[in-house]
Amino acid sequence: MSRFDVLSWTTLYLASEWIIRLVMLIVVPFRRSPEAAKGWLLFVFFLPWPALLLYHVIGRPNYPRWRRERFARLPKAFAGVTARIAAATERQEPDLPENLRQAAVLIRNLGRFSNVDGNGIELLSDYDGSIGRLVEDIDGAARHVHLLFYIFADDRTGWRVIDALARAVERGVTCRVLIDALGSRAWAPRVTEALRKRGVEVHLVLPVGLLRRRSARADLRNHRKIAVIDGVVGYVGSQNIVDADFKPGITNRELVVRVTGPVVLELQGVFAADWFLETQEALDAPDLFPAPMRTGNAVAQVLPSGPDYPEAGIGLLIEALVHGARRRVVVTTPYFIPNEALLRAMATAVLRGVEVHLVLSKPVDQILVSLAQRSYYTELLAAGVRIHLYKDRLLHAKHLSIDRRISLIGSSNVDMRSFTLNSEVSLIVFDRTVTAALHAEQEEYFAASEELSLETWRARPLASKIVENIARLVSPLL
């Protein structure tokens, strides 16, 4: 190749990079948060061609067309289910105080489920104990068992559940299982084979593959953890069906809610919708949505969120709850990559005299996310937010308490991925007793944590600050 040809190709390549930069400057900010836009544009500026290719693959938080078309058919396919849930719970709608009523209306508008009274709520923080309770409930099932989990392993914990499902099938119970294809990729072939051999209906959610006719995007996952037994007992929280120490050198601490009462029908509705999206089978038999019994005094509602929904529901809700706090906010999450709106909400809450606590895990399992997370500590501490680093285990629990009345427990982290990319589910409870129980759990975290001080944090090495801030620049892409 002549020198002229080399120069021509070099000029053409450089020109193409600037064309990509200019075009992406217009395209990227369209219908995207400023934080995410900045991350993408920085990537585009330094590496135009790799950024363009990656943007083509994961640049938009949208499911494939076939999935969007199925979701559009949900209202019609589930008209009977929606009516059945509404009829079963209409007598359970409570008269909340004005400030809580506004929160309940926001949740309903974001996720389509109303707040209902008469629920029994039990917090389960013992890892093996929560699996034991689930197995007990499966062993007591008479009609159906529905499980939806991001991770379902074939380890000791997984086999406890598999064996319980097998026993249920032998009794004539219909068992259906949904497992995220990527979250469970290390175990999925063996788990699905074991379940199918035992008569369990099982499907992988959002399978990914280059040669698949209907492949999903690798970054859009179903991160929910739901169990529903006979439409009368439900589980929701942070815990997967996997051993607590499935990651070498790390043991998880979780929090799960066992719930009974009318709100279980809403969890059933979330599972039924996800089942339809994967199988196109509408689960609308009357026995799936039995008339609820009053089992307690807690008011609760379910919020499903994810790319299927027009708003980033869980992110908006957390911001609104922090803005509405009057006394105390405690946010517990393993991954904290906030947007600017949430940072402002937390800082403003402190200025209003609200005690704001952020509980994070000192042991980490995702280095880049941890580095980006650490870059926010200085401004949070300077604003008066108290940061607690839980030392004993990887604190994988995900929950929020507001004052003495509102608890939010579910599968969602406080990061961009959970806000916009993952399908998540949260249980919101308006109850003093439940919030007091959650406060007791949080006090255990405080006692086992190292609380950061602004002076000590600012004294960390310069190299750490540089690496953390570089990670922060790409945090909207994590």
From TrEMBL:
* PROSITE patterns linked to this entry: PLD
Mention any Pfam family matching this sequence: PLDc_2
Q: Where is the PLD phosphodiesterase domain?
A: 218-245, 391-418
Question: Which UniProt key words apply to this protein?
Answer: Cell membrane, Membrane, Repeat, Secreted, Transferase, Transmembrane, Transmembrane helix
Q: Does the keyword Transferase apply?
A: yes
Q: Which InterPro entries match?
A: Cardiolipin_synthase, PLD-like_dom, PLipase_D/transphosphatidylase
On whether Protein transport is a keyword of this UniProt record, the answer is no
Q: Which GO terms describe its molecular function?
A: cardiolipin synthase activity
Give a Gene Ontology cellular component term annotated to this protein.
extracellular region
Task: Please name the Gene3D superfamilies in this protein's record.
Answer: Endonuclease Chain A
Where does the chain cross the membrane?
6-28, 40-58
Q: What is its EC number?
A: 2.7.8.-
The processes (GO biological process) annotated in the record are:
cardiolipin biosynthetic process
Location in the cell reads: Cell membrane; Secreted
Protein role: Could be a virulence factor.
Record's protein name? Cardiolipin synthase
Q: Which organism is it from?
A: Microvirga thermotolerans
